[in-house]
Structure formats: structure tokens, C-alpha cells
Amino acid sequence: MKKILTIIFTGILTTVNAQSIELNDIKLNGEIPYKININTLKSSIRQIDSIKSIPELMDMSNADSLIYIGKTYFEYFNDSKKCILNVLYFDEKITEFNIGKIKLTNKTTEKDISEYFKPNCNSTEFIDIFGEIEKYKACGVPLTLNGKLTDNRLLFFFLNGKLKRIDLWEPS
User: Fold this and answer.
1) Where are the alpha helices (DSSP H) in 2-155?
2) 3-state DSSP call for residue 7?
3) Would you say residue 6 has pLDDT above 60?
4) Rounded distance between C-alpha atoms, residue 1 and residue 164, angstroms
5) pTM of the predicted structure, to 2 decimals
6) Torsion angle of the four alpha carbons 58, 62, 67, 70, in this order, in degrees rounded to the nearest 10
7) Neighbours of 69 (CB within 10 A)
8) High-pLDDT (> 70) share of the chain, %
9) 100: which strand partners?
10) What is the largest CA-CA distance in the chain?
11) What mean pLDDT comes out for the span 18-44?
């Protein structure tokens, strides 16, 4: 009986992990991790476009400022000198988003994402994003950190059937 329960438990864990994304597997342009020291970020990217104060609408954030690379931004924490990816937009500065061996670009379709992340992205829902004119379709996949499930999600946003934006969302 113990052996059967072990097999079932292992199967459940494998299924849960198969339907999530490991934060440590995420890279921008194949080299920049989701969490990075400010000096390493500066040496990894040609140019940081701007560093701005946290806007009022993000008053729940504990970050000290936002670091922009194109329209993509990291939350920056002065004490630790860490930058944590918050929102990615595909543009001339950030051209790919890597999850392990999966490479996503602005050419990635809703169908591609649904193939990679069944059942979480088998369907998408329309969503309004504050400050955006366009009406996006979205889906989300749970995130793990060091193999442990978190409350966070990776949200994929599509415009005209193509991947346009990716958010690392955490509940406030």
C-alpha cells in the first residue's frame, strides 16, 4: 500500500510541476534572469533607458523604483541592489523570453502558448489593462521557485493573436 501511495504522490507532483514554470528557468534575450543585481543588469544590457519612481497606482509595491529597458521594466530595491522583472514587452530591446529551452517572441501565437502550457492556456480571456488602449486576451501559468509552488503567476497577453506582453504577477 505504501508503494502505491508513493507512486500516486509522485505522479501528482509531476503533474503539478508540469503545469507550472520555474522562475529560475526564465531569461530575457537568453541571458538576463528574472532576478538580477543592478550592476550585472547594467553590464548585460547595452543601456538602461530610465529609472523612475514607483507610480501612485503601484503603491502596494515595496520597490524603490522601476528600471526600464524599452517598455520592459524591473522593480528595483536599493537595499539589496536587486532588480526583479515585473513586465516584459517585446520591442527592439527585448526580443525574446526564454523558459528553459522554450523561446518566445512577438511572433509566438496563442496556439503556441496553448500547446506549451496545457491546460492553463487552452483558452484565453479578454482583459483590460490600465493605461492600455488595446484589448488583450490573456492566460496565466503558476510559478514555482526552487521547485516549490508559489502564489505567483506568469501572465501571457496577446494582441491580434500574437504574444505582446508578459507579466510576473503576484497577489497583493
Assistant:
1) 2-18, 38-44, 110-116
2) helix
3) no
4) 49
5) 0.83
6) -40
7) 25
8) 87
9) none
10) 60
11) 91
